[in-house]
Amino acid sequence: MNDYRKYLEPNVIAQLAGIELKARLVVEGFITGLHRSPYHGFSIDFSEHRPYRTGDETKNIDWKVFGRTDRYYVKQYEQETNLRTVIAVDSSRSMAYASKGQISKYEYAIYLAAALSTLLIKQRDAVGLALYDTEIHKYLPPKAKPSYLAELLKALANHEPSNATHTALALDMLAEKVKSRGLVIVMSDFFDDVESALKGLKHFRHRNNEVLVFQILDPREIDFDFGYAAEFVDMETDEIMTTQPYQIRHSYQTEMQKHIDSIRKECLNHNIDYFLINTEMSFDKALKKYLAKRAKI
Fold first, then answer.
1. CA–CA separation, 169 vs 220, rounded Å?
2. pTM over 0.85
3. Domain annotation for the chain: domains and CATH numbers
């Protein structure tokens, strides 16, 4: 059994303290998913007025304000509603790849998931986990208990990447399990057909979840710097190909960039937040860089 505690590096958790993960899009009950910010529902604590918009319920119009201003204003209220997050980690065999001097993409995803889970639970938000390849191998529903963190990390640390990838099928299965709307974080190398992968991601958006994509790639998968001769083995099909990398490096880089750009563009088109991560960058720096970017939204 792997020791999951190594994924809870105290210095990283300390650096992330005080940074809050913000859910940018509208989720359950028109909540904005930022802990301790005003969630606009119908609790007893009054927050503020805002102008009436088409579609607002007329019962929330403040008629006293209307009498004074001859304009329609709606009452807004604060309520304590926690964000519900599911972290979906691609556990297919391609995620086990690591070039010399790097950790595997799967282990990198574990570090990211550990830091994010700790952050969310410290915010008193609920977090769950799904491990997938062609199907869902493990699903732990979102909970906000601090003791739940160990269970999440044990599930990650004790699973070995296997099987091929079928992103759309697996994420469709997960979408059926995620009943309450919230935030879905998907960590994968996305070595799959772009249209297929986006089909699965869009399923969550159709259910009004916010979706965040971390595409995790090894540096050699980006620059294809393998020298003059190499034998390549497909980790999911075991197909072997011997070639001279320097001869096809430019063509490979062009196609890989097209693949990355296609995923990024499709995510943007469907209001899915996208962030590319190179495992050469330490996971804490990558996460802080993303959270700093997100805080500006």
1. 28
2. no
3. 4-25+82-295 (3.40.50.410), 45-78 (no CATH)
